[in-house]
Write a structure and sequence with these properties.
The complex is a heterodimer of chains A (475) and B (490). Helices cover 48% and strands 14% of the residues of chain A. Chain A has 475 residues and is of the alpha/beta class. In chain A, strands 3-2-1-4-5-6-7 form a seven-stranded parallel sheet. A six-stranded parallel sheet of chain A has the order 10-9-8-11-12-13, sandwiched between helices. In chain A, α2 packs across α3 (100-108) and α15 crosses α18 (437-454). Classes of the chains: A alpha/beta (475), B mainly alpha (490).
Chain lengths: 475, 490
Amino acid sequence: MKICLFLEGSYPHITGGVSTWAQMLIKNMPEFEFIIYSIGAEEKYRGSYKYKLPANVTSIHEVFIDEMLKERGSYGKRYRLGKDEIINLKNLITGEKVEWSHIFNLMAQRRIRNIMDFFMSYNFFDILKEAYVEKFHSTPFTEFFWTIRSMLVPIFFILKSELPKADVYHSAANGYAGLFASMAKFIYKKPFLLTEHGIYSREREEEIIKSTWARGYFKDMWIKFFYNICSGVYEFSDEVFTLFEKNREIEIELGCSEQKISIVPNGIDIEEFSGKEDYARKKDSDDDIINIATITRIVPIKDIKTMIHSFAHVKNSVKNAKFYIIGPTDEDAEYYEECKKLAARLELDSLTFTGKADVRNYLKDMDILVMTSISEGQPFVILEGMAAKKPFVTTDVGGCSELLYGINDGFGKAGLIEPVMDIDKISNAIIKLCRNGDLRKEMGENGFKRVSALYNYRNCVNSYKSAYKKLLGKI
Amino acid sequence: MAGIGFELKKLFKDSGFFSNLKAYAYSALVSLGPFIMCTIVLVAIMQFLQYMNFSFKDQELFIASVVYAFIFSQIIASGFKMIITRFIADMLYSEKFEFIMPSLYGVLSIAVPLSGIAGILFFWNSPLQTEIKLTAYLLFMELIVIFIVMEYLSTLKDYIKIVKSFLIGIICIVALSFVFLTFTNLAPVPGLLLAMDIGYFVILASLMVYLKNFFGKSSKKYYEFLKHFDNYPSLFFISFFYTLGLYIHNFLFWGSELGVNIGSAYIYAPVYDVPTFYAFLSIMPSMVVFVVSVETSFYDKYKTYYSLITGKGNFTDIENAKKDMTRTLWSEIRNIMEIQLFFTLVFIAAGSYILPDIGLSQFSVDIFNLLTVGAYFNIIMLIIILVLLYFEDRKGALFVSFTFLAGNTIFTYITIKYSENTYGLGFLLAAFLGMVIGIIELVVYLKNINYHTFCGQPIVYKEKNGLFSHIIYFLTPKSDRVSSNLKNRF
């Protein structure tokens, strides 16, 4: 049984939620053979893996988008394109609905040997011109031209690469990875399972809106382009797994058929965080130091600055509080410097940046965990903290509220949820927990019960196992 | 969350660049200068020789020495010409002025040894007197250098300065000729050649001083221009094929029964060569008109078109500018064709009166008539080639200049085998064919000019790293290597 797992910008080159999930999945299914198809941004990562690949990974294909910089083309070619192919290529630009099967066929037939040649051909220029006249005729043509090139070249670059043969295609994300998996499904007529950790098209949309590189009049085009990819992928997928209820609702809104969707949350090895000792230390006296920590990479999306501001507020009311920001600082060094300066300006000398560290060493001494992210999926740190019986204060993003409050599961609250960037509310919530040891303990226990019951990795692995088996049986 | 969508934008650099390609026209104009000057000097010296009653043999030997030096230096220099023009234009565009002078030394360090060896091979076994060999060889070498230096001067557009230098040089030549032949014991031929050597040296020195003052700073990167051989190899061949094509019919006639042997050192075919020379005088007006029209009406439209593309023009604006530009271009070309037609007819009419008077046979006058018509087609063809280069259609330009060279070789060969009455027709047909193909190419290319402008640009811009870039790498001092290597990569 061969399963081809498509990943984008994650496993095995970059650490993070998706990568942790992928490693767990593969490691716990020795009975399946895995082919890894990983799409990355930069070729410098080729062959450098952050994980030890389990023995059942039989091959790994790596495609890096910057490799296309090496491709050369010559211009002046003409291709024979069918009417449907032309229309769908054009729709890809204008944002109208795309029938991907025509594009998959075009790529699978190898009529286009070199995609650079194709994008420099007469045919493509004509298609681009038509799309321009139809939809974009008042925009600067040159900018349009280059925008379209940079928008389309990467996906064709990926679609052109060799499709691995497998019994089940499984993509860990929508987008480029999902699209290529869809093509594999379409060409080899094998089942395709999509897992969406975060909602790809929404994430891209947020990036595009905030971005400075895309001009106003082309932002809409970029956004539609990603929606076009993502809804195509929904169509081709046989099953869609996502982490939590909110995502499911968005997927339905985005046009994914409701019957396809199941919720399969992430899972962790509970014993790893709770087994050896009782991490939830008892604090009886107010004189004891209260340790407050966040476990995160120091990057803007985690909104560390709001966290530092909140800590400063907490410090004013809770003199015996100490703060820890645990996690790697090298990803965005500039942002890290800004954060340090902010902490200095706020005279928050009880804050420590630990850098990259083994979370388990710190967890046991912590009393409250905080997370102020602007965007999240279903963070492993929350699952781990819950397993260690720690109460949380988090912002209301992604699957946080589902994790901490549950959906009528009877376990009770495992923390407090506050609005994004709301320093007052976040700090008040932390203060509330600081002052109430019983509440901390209760929430820690609630969290532990929930995580043990619902977020055990075995559940997750079993769901995928049976999904693979079901899909295999279907054909 | 995972996702790499937006790392991409980084990968796409600027939307390409656009540079001022007018330089090709100036270069063509400026190379006319020495052609005219040489003619004047030759005619002047010939009159002088006749006046002084020198033997016909000496006259012939002198003329042949000068003409050989002139033709072969021009052919050898031609390959470098367009590449240099392009290199200078690009450097001026990107304001890297300090790369210009070093490139001149770099080109010379390649062209001079190359032609030096060619010259030595030619003269080695020649039965000429050593004095003649030396002076003729020197002249040949000087001309190579002058032709290359002229390319650099053409970018300055200071024609008065160039003309002044040439005038001073010519005065030197005439004066020294007189002095050497009347007051010294020098034999006439080496004496005259020495006078020319000194005169051309004066020209060369004053031009070099002028250039050096103008582009003072030097980056010491002598071989940067070689990268242009990797990026635009076709320019070398366009220019070389065209120039070789200009002379190939003469070479074929030298080998025919019209060929005359001079002192067992040179062969030429005066019956054919002299009319060729007069026929080419007829095309001067076109070059001037072309440069003027490029400078004025056409260039404005051309600039509008490209600035809409590099700027924020929408497609309708671009399309309108294209039509406008195309219309202006064709009307300018038609205009030149009409003006040139007038001059060509005047030359043909005048030729039949004047040429017999200065000693041409009726046979040569007939050849002159055909060649003058041929020169007409040839100059229109050259203009088309230059226009194609403005639009970066190097492939088209190469095809036209190759057609001309091949056509001239084949057709001239046939006419030589076929009949005396057709002498000159080979060149005419080749030039006509080249012109027609050029016009067709230009029509088709302009029809798709938007496509060519946009899609001709690589999706990811990269300098080509070919043979010559590697050579530069080895010529670069080790300490500079890293940075130049990095530059290649990005």
